[in-house]
Amino acid sequence: MKDIKYAVVFAGQGAQKPGMGKSLYETSAAARAVFDLAGEDIKFDCFEADAERLKQTEVTQPAVYTMDIAAYMALMEALGVDKGSFPEPAAVAGFSLGEYAALTAAGVIECPEVGLVLVRERALLMKDAGKNPDGSQKGTMAAGMGDPGAVLALVEKARGEGVLEAVNFNGPGQTVVAGDMAAVERFAALAKEDRGLGVKAIPLPVSGAFHSPLMKPAAERLAEVLKVFSFNAPKLAVYLNVTGGKFEDFEDKDFEESVSSVIANREICEADSGGKQSSEIDSKVKSIMVRQIQNPVQWQKTIEAMKDAGIEAIVEAGPGKTLSGLAKKIAPELLVLNVEDAESLAAAVSLLV
What we know:
- Helices cover 45% and strands 13% of the residues.
- It has 2 domains: 262 residues, Malonyl-Coenzyme A Acyl Carrier Protein, domain 2 (3-Layer(aba) Sandwich), CATH 3.40.366.10; 68 residues, 2-Layer Sandwich (Alpha-Beta Plaits).
- The chain is of the alpha/beta class.
- The protein has a 5-stranded parallel sheet, with helices on both faces.
C-alpha cells in the first residue's frame, strides 16, 4: 500500500450529465446501495433524464448529491477503507452543493437520508430566490476568464445600481460573477468591448445568481429549515467554501436561528441519534450552511490550503472532471484523480493503492 495523503472533493451543481452513476450502480455494491436508498425518482434523474430536465435546480441538486455520495462510497469500498486496509481521506471539501456531500462524508450530516432532505429544501429555496414575483428569472451568472484582478475591476465597472459580485474564486484564470440580469449582461458587454483587460465572459446556464446577495431570502429561509436539525463534529478535516480553510477555524457570532421551522420530522435516520455534539458545534454548522448559500466559494484557497497541509492527491467524487481540472491549474504538483464511473474508479484505485 502506498503511503499517500489524499483528499476527496465533491462535484457541485453544473457538473450533472445524463446517465451519471449508471456504471457505478451496475458495478459497485456500495454505490448501488446509495442509489437504492435515494429512490426511483433520483435513479431516473441520474440514469435516464435528459440534459434539459437535469438543468432544473430542484432536480439537479438531489441527483448530484446522490451521485457524489455514491461515487465516494464506491471509492471507499474499492480501497477497502471500511476493512482497515486503506486509510480514510485526510480531508474532504465540496464545491457549493458538493459541500453537503463533504459534510456527509465527514459525519457532520448524520446520514445520506438527512442529506437528501437538506439538499431538496436548499434547492427549492434557491429556485424561489432566483425568481421575480412574476416568475421571471431574477439573476444569472457568468464565468470571467482571465486575471482575477481584471475580473474584479470589471465587476466594479459593470455593477452600476444593480447587484454584481464575484462569487466563485475557482482558480488563477477563472472567477465566476453573479448578479441581476442587467448587471451580468453589462459585465459581458464590457468584457467584449474592452479587450485590453483580457477578460472573456462566458454566460452560465443557471437559474439564479447563486452565492450572491440575491440569495439572501434563501439563506433566511434555510435558517428556519435548519432549526429542527442537529449536526455532529466532523470526523475528517473539512475545508469550507466560505473561507477556504478548515471547519475548526470558522467563526461567526452573527448567526441567529429563526423561531419557526418548515420541517416537522427530524427522526429520519435509523441510526442512534444519541451523543449529539454541543450546541456550539450545532450552531456553527448551521451558520456555515446559511453563510455558504449567499457568499462566495473560495475554491482556489481550499486547494492551496490542502496542499499546504501536506495533501498529495485530490480525488474528485461525482460527475465530470471540473474540480480535477481546477486542481491541476491551482497546484500542478498534486496527483489529481476522479471517480465518476467504473473505469475512472479502477484508475483511481490503481494509482492510490
